[in-house]
Write a structure and sequence with these properties.
By secondary structure, the protein is α+β, with helices and mostly antiparallel strands. It folds into 2 domains: 67 residues; 94 residues, Pleckstrin-homology domain (PH domain)/Phosphotyrosine-binding domain (PTB) (PH-domain like, Roll). The strands form 2 sheets. The protein has a 4-stranded antiparallel β-sheet with strand order 1-2-3-4. A 3-stranded antiparallel β-sheet has the order 5-6-7. Helix 1 packs antiparallel against helix 2. It starts with a strand and ends in a 7-residue tail after the last helix.
């Protein structure tokens, strides 16, 4: 099972982008016309504005791409976390089910509860880092599934281990 981040995290990126773009447009329509620029300077300012908007859209597309690439994959033997930090920086982490100690989920705030997302934390044994997956959709359901997979792994492992069987 592959878990992708909730769309609410992308909505935050879009909201910030819309706010920034509106700020630029307001600046362009209300401040620049009051400067009484020559036709050549106004054309240069327009070209610069178009370039900035294009650059802005490219950065927005990259941010959304990076957001959507992060995932958590649950198998019958392990949990694999892929965290895409930048366009060229990604981190793969694998955690065996035998190292899963506990799973917690947390939903903070009215919006997180209304939209059904939160933070899923898989606590590990030993020196390994905990897996923290933000903007997890229905984190309580996935926490239960991970714990069930952990229990099934432990039961299956004990069934195969000849040292745990009595004769």
């Amino acid at each position: 099972m592959v878990i992708h981040q909730h769309w609410a995290g992308a909505a935050e990126i879009y909201g910030l982008a819309i706010f920034s773009l509106l700020s630029l447009v307001i600046l362009g329509f209300f401040v620049i016309p009051g400067l009484n620029l020559s036709a050549q300077t106004a054309a240069l300012a327009t070209s610069l504005a178009i370039f900035v908007i294009g650059l802005f859209l490219a950065v927005l597309m990259a941010a959304i791409y990076i957001y959507h690439k992060s995932s958590l994959t649950l198998t019958d033997r392990s949990i694999v976390q892929l965290v895409q930090r930048t366009l060229f920086n990604r981190k793969f982490s694998r955690l065996s089910m035998s190292n899963v100690e506990d799973v917690n989920c947390e939903q903070k705030g009215v919006i997180a509860n209304m939209l059904g997302y939160g933070t899923l934390t898989v606590q590990t044994a030993g020196e390994e880092d905990n897996f923290v997956f933000k903007f997890c959709p229905t984190p309580n359901i996935y926490a239960e599934r991970i714990l069930a997979a952990r229990q099934a792994y432990t039961t299956h492992k004990d069934d195969k281990d000849p040292s745990s069987q009595t004769t």
